[in-house]
Amino acid sequence: MIFTRTLLLNNGLSIPQVGFGCYQVRSSEPFFWALKHGYRHLDSAVFYKNEQQIGVEVKRAISEIPGLKREDIFITTKVPPNYQGYDKAREIIKQSLINFDLDYIDMVLIHHPSSSGLKHGDPKNKENRHGTWKALEEFVDEGLVKSIGISNFQSKHIESLMKVARIKPVVNQFELHPMYVEYETIETCRKYDILVEAYSPFAQFNKALVENKVVVGVAKKHGVDVARVILCYLIAKGFIVLPKSVHEERIANNIKLEGINLTEDDIKQLDELGKNNSLKVCWTSDDVE
């Protein structure tokens, strides 16, 4: 059965716990397939260069899927490093609103704590992201963006932002899967009631994860594929998950999670895989000022 659970954000709004990751999705059809098969959360970014395609497919879905309304669909985009700072952030968010053409954006994140053209140790990175946050807060005030958050922020970046934020981030999105867990970042998010979003939940299908004997064993036990075991594990931990595929069958399968009930022992075994943080496949923010 399709998984339709939502989580409550710290601003009182709700977010679907399973979203469709839009990174490297070049054609438009997968966005429609996702909506057709029950996804109500699409996670994009300026960097992905598919905001306009998503807007078109959302409008198509609303016209073709009985009962579906704009307010049923949660749309996320992100301000990239080359648009960090107050003025540039204002500019690019206005462009994103035009690209989607959906009246408003449900959530905008700062994609990374760094700024293009600056060394990671440059204190200007902090100044720029704080300026970006001010711009995001203004779009919330204007009603054009409903929620704002962060991505790839570690504890030090969150603590710094919280000193100047008028509106608290609702989520922090970063790489998270059974073989890579940022425990300190997760604890800081919990401290501030910031939900954790897991991108690259399959570690880009790295064999070290998807062929791991523990993961495969749990999948066989429940009679499902490895991908759904990973998603159910992350959901059980209380995280938002963002699976991605460009194949319709996989898109459909990745949200058929209802009724897959991992046991405490399953979760304990999978927890052990992340204790050495052995498999990071995406970009880092370790050294960003």
From TrEMBL:
GO MF annotation, one: oxidoreductase activity, acting on the CH-OH group of donors, NAD or NADP as acceptor
Keyword NAD attributed: no
Domain NADP-dependent oxidoreductase residues, every copy: 34-273
Annotated site residue numbers, Lowers pKa of active site Tyr: K78
Alphabetical list of CDD domains matching this protein: AKR_AKR1-5-like
Keyword Oxidoreductase listed: yes
Active-site residue list: Y48
InterPro entries: AKR (IPR020471), Aldo/ket_reductase_CS (IPR018170), NAD(P)_OxRdtase_dom_sf (IPR036812), NADP_OxRdtase_dom (IPR023210)
PROSITE patterns for the chain: ALDOKETO_REDUCTASE_1 (PS00798), ALDOKETO_REDUCTASE_2 (PS00062), PROKAR_LIPOPROTEIN (PS51257)
Annotated positions binding substrate: H111
Keywords for this protein: NADP, Oxidoreductase
Pfam families: Aldo_ket_red (PF00248)
Family: Belongs to the aldo/keto reductase family.
Protein name: NADP-dependent oxidoreductase domain-containing protein
